[in-house]
Amino acid sequence: MAKLTKAQREWRPGMPKKRRSTKVMFASTVLLLEAFVVLFGTLTVFGLRRDEFPPVLIFSVGIGLALVYAFTCAVLTKPWGVALGWVLQIVLILTGIFEPAMYLVGGLFAVAWWYGIRTGIRIDRESAQREREQAAWDAAHPEEQSN
Question: Is the pTM of this model over 0.85?
């Protein structure tokens, strides 16, 4: 049998489910897509520039960078997680030094990151407001909740 997480062990019937952050979901999606782009960019640099750079260096930097993008998803809930995401956007743009097409790709992903963060914050704010209003309505109308 699989080991239960702390949240699963503490769950009781009727407990409200904790809301997931839309900002974190949007940001994680962008970062994972960027990890794949870095992997494919690594293959591109290997194919085009293996005479200029040692293949071991190309693959170790590329795979390491892709792992950093993927693992950053785990820290997006921390206060510094989004700041790290912004640093990674700059890094992706700067990979254009090795493959000029990455300037465009990195810029487009930076716009997607900005839009995801901005829209996610707005949606999270609106959802929290709706939850507060629902809780206030439920408190004012307890007789309708027994159904």
Answer: no
